[in-house]
Amino acid sequence: MRPRSWDDHHAKHVLLLTAGHGECEFGARMGDYRGVSETQDQSAPTSPAAGHGSSPAPATQAVKPVIPAAAAKRANASVIGMIVALVVSIAAFLPIVLMNPSPKTDGYRPNIDVSAVATHAVDVAGFTPVAPETGDTFKPNYARWEAGTGTGVPTWEVGYLTPKEAFIGLVQTRKANPTWLLQQTKNAPVTGNRNAGGQEWELRDTGKGERSMVLNHRGTTVVLSGSAQLDEFSVLAAAVVKSLDSNPVVTVSPSPSPKP
Predict the structure, then answer these.
(1) How far is CA 166 from CA 27, 82, 122, in A?
(2) For the chain, how many structural domains are there in total?
(3) How do strand 167-173 and strand 211-217 relate by DSSP bridges?
(4) Residue 231 within any structural domain of the chain
(5) With CB atoms 3.0 to 4.6 Å apart as the test, which of 1, 82, 137, 166 could cross-link to 162 if both were Cys?
(6) Contact at 8 Å (CB) between 188 and 210?
(7) Phi-psi category of residue 126: left, alpha or beta, with phi > 0 → left and psi -120 to 50 → alpha
(8) Cα–Cα distance between 115 and 121 in angstroms, integer?
(9) Torsion angle of alpha carbons 229, 231, 233, 237, nearest 10°?
(10) Is residue 179 within 8 Å of 196, Cβ to Cβ?
(11) From CA 150, how far away is CA 175, in angstroms rounded?
(12) In this structure, is residue 46 part of a structural domain?
């Protein structure tokens, strides 16, 4: 073996220094890289940095819920059940509605000719019944002759619907008596007098919305009764007086005196 010379020893020393210097430099560079990496981790956003040419992440699509077949079937069954119940309810009430139609606005207005009916009642009545001329303001809904089988007092009766949709009934007789008069006026007390058609009518009031006007004139007694206001009573009463004055006076033939 050749003994090492000074050159060999110097070359080895230089190599060690060179290697040591490289190791130190490499270690320093690695430390710098770690610092840069930590700084980037703290400051860089989660999304990729702009400028690297990377494309943005696609938008997340909404997840469409899926209803199980059994749940969908139950939901459809509930809706169908409600529809069937509604149809059955309508079918049950529809005949009732159809059998009870709503009345017309004007209602049923019979065409009553009071004057014609009064003319036909003259022979049986023994006097000419009143037929007030009221035009189109008071609507008669009946006109009749009552034989008075139960009361013993035959009467001429006419019913009127007033312009304010109230009712006034007219009764005329030549055989009035106190009991019959109380029945016609519903036992109402006399509360005063009221002039209508130039005649003084006796006014009676029940205090419950029912009132009457009574007149004894030209051989007969006329009673007007109903729930109408007094102004409507007065209009009809004036027409009654006019009709009474145009008719013949009713006279009662005296009973024949018994022969001795």
Answers:
(1) 119, 48, 29
(2) 1
(3) unpaired
(4) yes
(5) 166
(6) yes
(7) left
(8) 10
(9) 180
(10) no
(11) 14
(12) no
Q: How far is residue 3's CA from residue 170's CA, in Å, rounded to a whole number? A: 167
Task: Say whether 199 sits in a helix, a strand or coil.
Answer: strand
Highest mean pLDDT pick, 40-49, 88-97, 217-226: 217-226
Over residues 10-62, the pLDDT tens digits come to 545 444 444 444 444 444 444 444 444 444 444 444 444 444 445 555 556 66
For residue 252, being part of any structural domain is answered with: no
**Are 106 and 90 a contacting pair, CB within 8 Å?**
no
Domain CATH number, residue 230: 3.30.200.100
Q: How far apart are CA 182 and CA 163, in angstroms?
A: 28
CA angle 140, 146, 151 (to 5 degrees): 130
C-alpha distance from residue 223 to each of 92, 155, 174 (Å):
50, 11, 12
Residue 139 has pLDDT above 90, yes or no: yes
Comparing CA positions, the residue from 182, 176, 180 lying closest to residue 206 is 182
pLDDT score recorded for residue 72: 67
| CB 227 within 8 Å of CB 166 | yes
Which residues are 33's β-sheet partners? none
For residue 254, pLDDT beyond 50: no
For residue 11, is it within any domain?
A: no
Q: Which two tokens stand for residue 197?
A: 């058609």
- Phi and psi at residue 174, in whole multiples of 5°? -110, 5
- Angstrom distance (rounded) from CA 244 to CA 216: 11
C-alpha dihedral, 39 to 45 to 50 to 51, nearest 10°: 20
pLDDT at 111: 85
Please tell me the total number of residues recorded for the chain in this structure.
260
Handedness of CA 71, 72, 77, 79 (dihedral sign): positive
Report how far apart, in Å, the C-alpha atoms of 244 and of each of 74, 98, 212 are: 82, 48, 18
| Type and span of the H or E element at 231 | helix 230-246
